[in-house]
Design goal:
Elements (H helix, E strand, L loop, with lengths): L2 H8 L3 H14 L3 H28 L4 H15 L9 E3 L2 H8 L9 H21 L11 H18 L1 H5 L8 H10 L6 H17 L7 H19 L8 H4 L17 H25 L10 H17 L6 E3 H9 L6 H16 L1 H5 L3 H15 L2 H10 L1 H16 L2 H21 L3 E7 L5 E4 L10 E7 L7 H7 L11 E6 L7 H16 L3 E6 L2 H9 L2 H5 L4 E3 L6 H17 L1
Parallel strand pairs: 5-6, 6-7, 7-8
Antiparallel strand pairs: 1-2, 3-4, 3-5
Helix pairs in contact: 3-4, 3-11, 3-15, 3-16, 3-18, 4-14, 4-16, 5-13, 6-13, 6-14, 7-18, 7-20, 7-21, 10-11, 10-18, 11-18, 13-14, 13-21, 19-20, 20-21, 22-23
Length: 576
C-alpha cells in the first residue's frame, strides 16, 4: 500500500477537512432551511431578552450582564457544540452559584464576574479535551434530583422580595422568606400587584398558542402596568433602569482580573460541573435532526468557548439550556444557523430598543423566574427516587437540604462527593459468589455455594461484581466459611475477566488461603490477567499456595477451569 493511501486511511488530509468544513458551512444557507431557521431564531431571540435580564437578576448582578451572557454565550458556542440546537445561555442553577459567590467582596465586582465566566469556560474546555463526558456516569439520579429540586425552591424563594417589594435584611433565602411572612403587611402593594398579574399572565399565556412567547407578552404587559402605576398613579414600581443604565451599544471586550483567579477557582469548577451536567441533558433530550449522536465531550468544549466569549464581552457564566434548546427545536429550526439569528435579534434589541429594555418591570422578571423555579421541581422524579430505596432517598434528601442552606458552589461539590460515595457503596454491595458445578460430560452449571467448605471436595467459586478495595469486606463475608470439617478440599477461585484486585482484596485472599492451608486444604486460582498474577505474588499468596496453584486462562471459555478442576480432583483423590 502506498503512502497516500495509508494517510487517507488513518486520518483525513487537511484539504479534505477544510473542504468538509466549508461544505457544512454552506449547508447552513440552503433555501429550504433558511426561512425556518430565521423564524426559530426570531422566536428564541425575542424570548431571550427578558430571560437574560431575569438571569442577571437571579444571579444578583447587573441584569445587563445576563443579557450579554445570553447573546455572546449562544453566539460563541453555536459552531463548536456537537448538538446542533444546544442554546448556551445562563441557567437558574448557574445563576444561583454566581449569586452565592460573593462577588461584591472583590475590588471590581463586575470584572470579577467576567473573569468568572472566562475561567469557567477554560475549565469546561479542559474537561472536554480530557473526554470528561465519561465522568457524568458517576453522578447518580438521586444527587441530581435533590440538587435540581432545591435549585427550583431557591429560585422561588430568592425572588419573593422582587415580587413583593419587601427588602429583608436576613442572611439567606430561607430566613428572608420567614422574615417576609412575619412582615407581610409591609409589602409594597403596587409592586405585588404587578408581580402577581405578570405571574398569572405567564401561567395563562404559555398555555395558549403563544407558548413561550407568552413569557414576553406577560413581561411587556407587566411593565406597562408598572409604567402606569409610576407615571400616572404616583406609586413607583422598580424597573431595570432604576438599578442600572441600559447601554445603547454592544460592549467593548474586557480583560480578566488575574488577582481574582484564586478566589474564583472553586466557583468556576462548580459552575463548570453544573453546566456540563445540564448540557449533557440537552445533548440527550434535543437530538440532531440527522440522527448523529451527540458527543458530550465536544459539547463541553462548545460550552467552554461560549463562556469565554461571554466573559470577554462582559457577560455572566452560561451553559447548555434545556428550555431554550427545546424552544428553538420546537419553533422549527433546521440548522444551528437559528442560534446565530437569535443572537442577531438580541443585538438589534440592544442597539435600537435599549430604552424599552430599561422600562422592564422588576416584579415581572421576578414572576418569570418564579415560574422557572416551579417548573424545575419535578414531583414525579422525586417519587421515583423514593421508590428506589432508603439509601437513594437519603442521598437525595441530604443534597436537597445542603443546597438550600449552604452556598451552591459547596453544595455542588458535596453532591459530587455523595455521588461518588453512593457509586462505591452500590458497586461494593453488588458482589455475588456462585459455585460452578462441573458435570462429567464437561458442562458447567451455576448453583448457590454451601455456607461452609465441605471436606474432601473440589469447590469452584465464581465471583461477580466489581472487585476493588470497598468491596473487600463484602467479598470476604460471602465466601464460604472454612471450618474444622473443611479438610482435604480444594477451592478454585475463578477470576476470569478481573484485571485488578487491590491490596484489600489481596489481603482477604491471603487470609482465606491461610485458613484453608491450616485445615489441610488448598486455594487455587484461574486468572486471565498478568497484573492479577503479579498482585498475588507481591501479596505473598503464591509463596503460600505454590506456583502450581495458579492457572493462566486461555481464549477458550471453560478450558482452564476444567483443567484446574481435574488436577484438584486428582489431588483430593490422592489425599483420600
Amino acid at each position: 500500500m502506498n503512502d497516500a493511501t495509508s494517510d487517507g486511511a488513518g486520518s483525513s488530509p487537511p484539504v479534505s477537512r477544510s473542504r468538509a468544513a466549508w461544505t457544512r458551512f454552506r449547508g447552513l444557507f440552503r433555501r429550504d432551511t433558511l426561512g425556518k431557521d430565521g423564524v426559530a431564531g426570531l422566536v428564541l431571540g425575542i424570548e431571550s431578552v427578558p430571560d437574560g435580564l431575569a438571569s442577571g437578576l437571579l444571579a444578583g448582578v447587573n441584569p445587563i450582564a445576563g443579557l450579554y451572557g445570553y447573546l455572546f454565550g449562544m453566539l460563541g458556542a453555536a459552531f463548536f457544540t456537537s448538538s446542533s440546537f444546544m442554546a448556551v445561555q445562563a441557567t437558574g442553577a448557574m445563576a444561583l452559584v454566581v449569586a452565592d459567590t460573593d462577588l461584591g467582596s472583590r475590588p471590581d465586582p463586575d470584572r470579577a464576574l467576567f473573569t468568572l465566566a472566562m475561567l469557567t469556560g477554560v475549565v469546561m474546555i479542559i474537561a472536554g479535551l480530557l473526554r470528561g463526558g465519561r465522568l457524568l456516569r458517576f453522578v447518580p439520579t438521586a444527587v441530581m434530583t435533590g440538587f435540581v429540586t432545591a435549585v427550583g425552591v431557591n429560585i422561588v424563594l430568592g425572588q419573593l422580595s422582587n415580587l413583593t417589594g419587601y427588602e429583608s435584611g436576613e442572611a439567606n433565602r430561607i430566613t428572608r422568606t420567614f422574615d417576609l411572612l412575619f412582615n407581610i403587611v409591609r409589602i409594597d402593594l403596587p409592586t405585588t400587584i404587578v408581580g402577581l398579574a405578570s405571574l398569572a399572565l405567564i401561567v395563562w399565556l404559555t398555555r395558549t398558542r403563544l407558548a413561550s412567547l407568552g413569557l414576553v407578552v406577560a413581561v411587556v404587559v407587566g411593565s406597562v402596568l408598572a409604567f402606569a402605576s409610576t407615571e400616572w398613579l404616583g406609586f413607583p414600581v422598580a424597573t431595570v433602569s432604576d438599578i442600572t443604565d441600559v447601554p445603547s451599544g454592544l460592549p467593548a471586550p474586557a480583560l480578566p482580573s488575574l488577582d481574582d483567579l484564586w478566589f474564583l477557582a472553586l466557583p468556576a469548577i462548580s459552575l463548570a460541573f453544573v453546566g456540563l451536567i445540564q448540557g449533557a441533558a440537552v445533548s440527550a433530550g434535543v437530538p440532531n435532526l440527522d440522527g448523529r449522536p451527540a458527543d458530550a465531550s465536544r459539547d463541553f468544549i462548545g460550552q467552554g468557548v461560549g463562556n469565554v466569549v461571554a466573559g470577554v464581552f462582559r457577560g455572566m457564566p452560561v451553559g447548555g439550556s434545556m428550555s431554550a434548546s427545546a424552544l428553538i427545536a420546537a419553533a422549527g429550526a433546521r440548522t444551528r444557523l437559528a442560534l446565530v439569528v437569535a443572537s442577531g435579534v438580541m443585538m438589534l434589541v440592544i442597539l435600537f430598543l435599549s430604552d424599552a429594555v430599561g422600562f422592564v418591570a422588576m416584579p415581572s422578571l421576578a414572576a418569570l423566574l418564579i415560574v422557572v423555579g416551579i417548573q424545575a421541581i419535578k414531583p414525579a422524579k422525586v417519587l421515583s427516587v423514593i421508590k428506589t430505596g432508603p439509601l437513594q432517598t437519603t442521598v437525595m434528601a441530604v443534597t436537597f437540604v445542603l443546597t438550600l442552606i449552604v452556598p451552591l458552589q459547596f453544595a455542588v461539590l458535596v453532591g459530587v462527593g455523595l455521588g461518588i460515595i453512593l457509586f462505591v457503596v452500590q458497586q461494593s454491595n453488588r458482589i455475588r459468589i456462585r459455585r460452578l458445578s462441573i458435570e462429567p460430560d464437561g458442562r458447567m452449571k451455576e448453583i448457590d455455594p454451601d455456607p461452609t467448605i465441605p471436606g474432601g471436595e473440589v469447590v469452584v467459586l465464581q465471583p461477580y461484581g466489581s472487585l476493588f478495595f470497598a468491596s473487600a469486606p463484602v467479598f470476604e463475608a460471602r465466601l464460604p466459611d472454612v471450618t474444622a470439617t473443611s479438610r482435604g478440599s480444594v477451592v478454585i477461585l475463578r477470576l476470569r475477566g478481573v484485571d485488578q484486585l487491590g491490596l484489600a482484596l489481596v489481603e482477604v485472599l491471603r487470609r482465606y488461603a491461610a485458613a484453608l492451608h491450616d485445615h489441610s486444604s488448598e486455594l487455587r486460582f484461574v486468572v486471565s490477567s498478568d497484573d492479577v498474577i503479579a498482585q498475588l505474588r507481591h501479596g505473598g499468596i503464591i509463596a503460600l499456595i505454590g506456583e502450581h496453584a495458579v492457572y493462566r486462562g486461555t481464549e477458550w471459555q471453560g478450558e482452564t477451569v476444567r483443567t484446574a478442576f481435574e488436577d484438584a480432583a486428582a489431588w483430593v483423590s490422592d489425599r483420600r
